[in-house]
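Input record, target 12 of the design panel.
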């Protein structure tokens, strides 16, 4: 069932984050980035038509299963978050699923960076008044520390993705994070830590985005304080 997009949800998310002892990474050798978890409204069946061929998206990208083609379909409805498909022309992590975000500029806070990147990447302008709170930091294999900033969009919004960075923006219902088959954990020989997979549409979302989305479910929706910083990325995302 979909989750209503209303004031009760907003206050539940805010209260759950406020009651959480946030895990921060203070490693000066790492670069700092922020991502925006933007909560918006959506309607069932409004999934966007893919603006480019799925074959182009998936070119050179290992697919997780024969029954998964990488399309983000059947996911909208009720309270949702914005999920981006990165452009294939990008030099790193091209064609992958991601939350709006990027590296902090000198002197920026995580909130500043998340708001700026949200505007630059998907054409949505929000303010500090829309911040519901910060989730745990996640340290990536590529040397970044990512701080997720949860934002209340205040309605449906109208994403206008920057074509050089984002191919498309989808509204993914929060109820999709609570699927019976989610989350999934697998082992890999390269690490003792479990790799997290979040099934969405016809694809699997991996860490770091998958770890952030798992904490959205556990903390924001369910009030659970379980850590996600120990969850591993797949090897293809280590660069």
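The sequence produced for target 12 reads:
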């Amino acid at each position: 069932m979909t989750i209503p997009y209303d004031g009760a949800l907003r206050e539940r998310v805010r209260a759950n984050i406020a009651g959480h002892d946030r895990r921060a990474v203070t490693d000066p050798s790492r670069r700092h980035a922020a991502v925006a978890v933007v909560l918006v409204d959506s309607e069932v069946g409004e999934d966007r038509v893919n603006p480019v061929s799925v074959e182009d998206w998936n070119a050179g990208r290992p697919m997780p299963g024969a029954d998964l083609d990488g399309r983000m379909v059947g996911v909208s409805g009720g309270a949702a978050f914005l999920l981006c498909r990165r452009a294939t022309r990008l030099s790193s992590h091209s064609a992958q699923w991601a939350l709006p975000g990027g590296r902090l500029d000198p002197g920026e806070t995580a909130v500043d960076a998340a708001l700026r990147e949200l505007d630059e990447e998907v054409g949505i302008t929000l303010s500090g008044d829309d911040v519901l709170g910060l989730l745990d930091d996640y340290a990536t294999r590529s040397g970044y520390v990512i701080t997720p900033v949860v934002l209340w969009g205040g309605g449906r919004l109208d994403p206008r993705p920057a074509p050089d960075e984002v191919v498309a923006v989808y509204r993914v219902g929060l109820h999709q994070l609570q699927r019976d088959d989610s989350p999934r954990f697998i082992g890999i020989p390269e690490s003792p830590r479990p790799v997290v997979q979040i099934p969405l549409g016809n694809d699997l979302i991996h860490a770091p985005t998958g770890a952030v989305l798992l904490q959205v479910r556990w903390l924001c929706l369910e009030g659970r304080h379980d850590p996600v910083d120990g969850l591993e990325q797949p090897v293809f995302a280590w660069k």
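The radius of gyration is 16 Å.
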